[in-house]
Amino acid sequence: MLVKERDDNQEVKTKEQQILAAAEQEFLTKGYDGARTTAIAKVAGVTHAMLHYYFRTKEQLFERIVDEKFATMSRSMFAIMGDPKLPIVERIIGGVATHFDFVAENPLLPRFIINEIVARPERYEVFYKRAGVVIETMYRDLQLEIDLAAERGEMEKVDVKMLFISIMSMNVFTFVAYPFMEPLMGELMSDRARFLSQRKAENIETILRRIKKQ
Amino acid sequence: MLVKERDDNQEVKTKEQQILAAAEQEFLTKGYDGARTTAIAKVAGVTHAMLHYYFRTKEQLFERIVDEKFATMSRSMFAIMGDPKLPIVERIIGGVATHFDFVAENPLLPRFIINEIVARPERYEVFYKRAGVVIETMYRDLQLEIDLAAERGEMEKVDVKMLFISIMSMNVFTFVAYPFMEPLMGELMSDRARFLSQRKAENIETILRRIKKQ
DNA sequence: TATTTGTTTAACAATTTTGTTAGCACAAAA
DNA sequence: TTTTGTGCTAACAAAATTGTTAAACAAATA
Asked: Whole-prediction pTM value?
């Protein structure tokens, strides 16, 4: 009985899915150390024995979440690459916007990933082995395109990696530091949606000015 | 016997100081949940009963560290304000540089603070109450100065708060995301000191272009 | 020297958290 | 109808972690 149905034929989550959903919430907000399997079970609405029945250990449940989160984060980073069909400047600006939206949809992700990597770097060597090569190639291609555009006088000659770090900095910080900044910024951040749209425009403007020929 | 001395008359840390030093390291790297009082005691070279003798609870020991860290972070933020005697553009650029150096000296601080605030926001209402007012006044003054300079055509008219967020974003991200980025960036980040100096220049350049009149 | 005060340790206690197990209930298969 | 397997619960077990205490010891003080 993998998919449960109610009388009215609406699909309902299986217990396993309920546990996964609760675990995602708990791990993303509190991290591995702060998360409690009993709390996860409670939120999921099952006994904690149930949790161990399905996932055996906290560690294994955590891995399920971590794997998915790393995959999501990889996709978000590739979003910065932008649409290869566009001219380079629009491509970069489109990349900033797409990346911003990606992080906006997963605002808890960056802090979670960074904390994880600091806590147990060894664990993610596999991830880096695969990602490193892919990224290096994509960087080379993009750098080539930028250098050509720069020679044509269409933009400033910049280092792709540095540019990427700047883009990630501004987009990620917006969400990671939100809880810290919000009470300090008064009016500006009181309306979250409004602030985010302003911030997105600001990040785009900042990057645009960085790559514009002066 | 508050200050211990050795035969050779060199000063040695008291047990209390040893515990505090070890606790700072443990809490900054692992956070409250990940930290273990036994591990702190071990690093400090004392029994864990000793730790409880001096600080009674993990909570109280943590508060000692947290208070100091929040003070340090406040100072780092005021660094962005720059030197009021300088012309506004130099003042801002100087602020970026000083803030960068500040974070460089406390690379573990931002992640620690953010994690703390996410974990228990209530606890820091006091901090925000005090900081909020001070910051609001300083913002107003700076914004005034910027608006005047903009009217004189010396710089672009920008929102101070947005500018501050951009500055913090780029400077803080450099250090917070370092462990995550380093294995992805190959050559660029293999020499930490070299990378940091390049990154500092890049952050300054980015902010400079943001406020330059076009 | 005797007394007091503060420091240290070892052993223990309490609590929290994770993980296990025996067995019940129920549905599908034989 | 019996059997088999799965989902599930309650109660228990184990481990890790924090916190306490009594007593030994050392240092300062009267």
From this structure: 0.93
